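Protocol step 4 of 6: structure prediction from sequence.
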Amino acid sequence: MSKLTLGSYPHLLGFEQLERLLERSAKAGNEGYPPYNIEQTSDFSYRITLAVAGFAEEDLSITIEDRQLVIRGRQRDDSEGRIFLHRGIAARQFQRMFVLADGVDVGEAIMENGLLHVDLTRAIPEAVVQTINIRKG
């Protein structure tokens, strides 16, 4: 059985970039850490919340790279000189990526009680009707 692509549908024109975004999103390989939620906060806004207990604000970075929201965390190893009888909380780095559609903008990021909230807004699309003139050839 052959793989269906957006190019397989002749009435969908100009969606090649969408197909590349879907492939890139599938290859992002996000593992399960840290856990996160995505919630719709209104018709045109969203909030991504990551559980980042143990990370300080300076341990985190949020960037937009080629229409991808990239959130990285890297904890400093402060175990020098300490003797652990059990170490169940590891200093672990992570990278989470979210592909953003055109018109989605990243707002503010808020750190609260071990949770990192990143707010997103989507521009309200304008309804556009355009008339194309037909000329004689």
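Step 5 (inspection) to follow. The first strand starts at residue 36 and ends at 42.
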